[in-house]
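Before relying on records like the one below, remember that each one covers exactly one chain. Contacts with other chains, cofactors or solvent are not represented anywhere in the record.
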Amino acid sequence: MRWENLTEGSAGPAALFGAAAVVTRTFDTPEFRGITFHEVRARSIVNRVPGASRMPFEWTVNPYRGCSHACVYCFARKTHSYLDLDTGIGFDSQIVVKTNAPELLRRELGSPRWTGAHIAMGTNVDCYQRAEGRYRLMPGIIEALRDRANPFSILTKGTLILRDLPLLREAAEVTEVGISVSVGFTDTGLWRTVEPGTPSPAARLGAVRTLTDAGIECGVLMAPVIPFLGDSPEQLRATVRAVAEAGATSVTPLVLHLRPGAREWFTAWLGAHHPHLVPRYERMYAGGSYAPTWYQRRITRQVHELAAEFGIGPARRGEARKIVTPERPDGSAPAEATQLSLL
């Protein structure tokens, strides 16, 4: 494994962690069998999104690298190649854990240079994958964001987010909190083959219901819509109907995109399970990582029409909340609270 490229003394970008801090573990329990964890002490945790990215946010926090959800289409697979790890099965089973993520985030948020910008989580790999059940990094991360009233969002396929519902409610009292659950389809046969390590779509939609019933607005990222396998009018209707029944505040479709690393792994899966579709995919993605614009627009239009039919409106943006400044020890009136900027 190419740890030296990311450790102190490397000739490349600033080191991400010290080589002496890497500890490799395996656990002989059913939920972790076949998975290797590489525990590291990161040197930074708040990452700036490259300017060329299509992402609608500038800063992210990723406490893990690699993901046991094992989604065959995951665009983050390429990141494992930076460690000389396989972007296929290695991405699914070799998980890097940044064990000091909560304490590091608290320190970085407290820096005079930090301006309180929105932080997105779950946009690279899922922060509520199975590893989180053991390492419990997210409670400390949410607490750090709550205590600084720093706006944040979480995207997940993991129902483990419900464990942290009390903390999410506390954070929502002082800052903008956005929660989205990813459910691209409700077809259980498709789910078992393309997202084998995730909770079922029904379980994820159950989490949406629990979150919304608890007063935490939750949208659904309908992603990915998989061409020729999950995009029929009947499948789209069934998914949007289920999303509406779960109480989601919004539904946003996103068509499958196939970046290098993910493209090779997905194509191998497609050849094994649906070989007749390989030529159609070669034509559809001949222009690059994204499906043609006409196809994306068609899917978006269909989903929006279905959302209107089932009564799902656009996501409602809450008002910025204020962090309460505690009373001074001398009993004098607290300074005026600082209002944070919205997303």
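Confidence is low (pLDDT under 50) at residues 5-15, 315-343.
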